[in-house]
Amino acid sequence: MKSAGEASLQWFDAHCHFDFEVYEGRREGDWAQASAAGVAGVMIPGVSRALTEALMKRPSQGWNQHCLAGLHPYWCHEHHSSDLTFLEQALKQLKSAAVGEAGLDVHLAKSGQVAMETQWQWLQPQVELAEHLRLPLVLHVRGMHDELWSFLRRRSFSYGGLVHAFSGSEQQGRRWHELGFALGVGGAMTHPRAQRLRRTLTALPSEALLLETDSPDMLPAFLGGRVNVPAMIPLYGAILARLRNMDSLSEIAQIQQQNLYRIFPFACGKFV
After folding, report:
1. From CA 100, how far away is CA 133, in angstroms rounded?
2. Sheet with strand 209-211: strands edge to edge
3. CB-based contacts of 67: which residues, under 8 Å, 6+ apart?
4. What is the mean pLDDT of residues 240-262?
5. Pairing of strands 137-142, 99-105
6. What is the pLDDT of residue 271?
7. pLDDT (tens digit per residue) in 82-122
8. How far apart are CA 141 and CA 181, in angstroms?
9. Quick one: 1 exposed, middle or buried, by C-beta within 10 A (0-12, 13-18, 19+)?
10. What does R_g of the chain's alpha carbons equal in angstroms?
11. Which residues pair with 139 in a beta bridge?
């Protein structure tokens, strides 16, 4: 198998919060490290109005990024009705590849942080906006795969997207794939207790998977308490290739690029 850092291979991070404050003062170095490892670009999801506005004001500093816009369930207490108007304007201004990160999280509801009804109230208009703009969705889904899949299927949602940090069953993964969604794969697969997830990733079609870091979160088992970075992507590719008994990294890198352009056609030309 070829080295994960081989310069001829080109990778991308399909989900990376590279705009978060933790990267201030280190963003240039982290991007230089990722670029040297063969990472051609990152997709940065939006999570709130305030963070998206800050991202839109930040000048490009040399890293290849594609910015999304969305309202994440974790930030529900910050969202206001006017944010939906802002969201549409931001998506058009950014010429964004997708709406998101939006979604449903059963753990937020069970812990009493954000009621499921409230999460649905913010998710549905974002789905409607994606339909209006004919854009894919980037989804945060925890414990609500069947419910959210059924909702989108009933709407005949046809623009696909990414189910970020997928941890569902093989059957759920196949249903998402049939609906036009890719499944985000990252550091979770490296943890010793993730045996079911590794079996699922082995069983699903390679066309259903997209590598992501969710930086600075979703740390791999071997990174300890440090900040996650986009440079992990080639290593994730090597791990996924080994799980799937693939002969070369170039094969999985090519499949990943094809998956990106199929799921996010508006991203074409961003990663060159």
Report:
1. 13
2. 99-105, 137-142, 161-164, 181-185, 209-211
3. 19, 44, 46, 52, 55, 56, 94, 96
4. 93
5. parallel
6. 45
7. 999 999 999 999 888 899 999 999 999 999 999 999 999 99
8. 13
9. exposed
10. 17
11. 102, 163
Q: Could you tell me if 252 and 205 are in contact, meaning their C-beta atoms sit under 8 angstroms apart?
A: no
For residue 180, what is the enclosing H or E element? none
Q: What percent of the chain has a predicted confidence (pLDDT) above 90?
A: 85
Task: Give residue 45's identity as a one-letter amino acid code.
Answer: P
- What's the rounded Cα separation, in Å, for the pair 212 and 163? 11
Rounded-to-integer distance, Cα 91 and Cα 85, Å: 10
CB 131 within 8 A of CB 92: no
DSSP H stretches of helix in the chain: 27-36, 49-57, 82-94, 106-110, 116-133, 145-154, 170-178, 195-203, 233-243, 249-263
Query: What are the φ and ψ backbone dihedral angles of 57, each rounded to 5 degrees?
Result: -85, -15
73 preceded by a cis bond (ω within 30 of 0): no
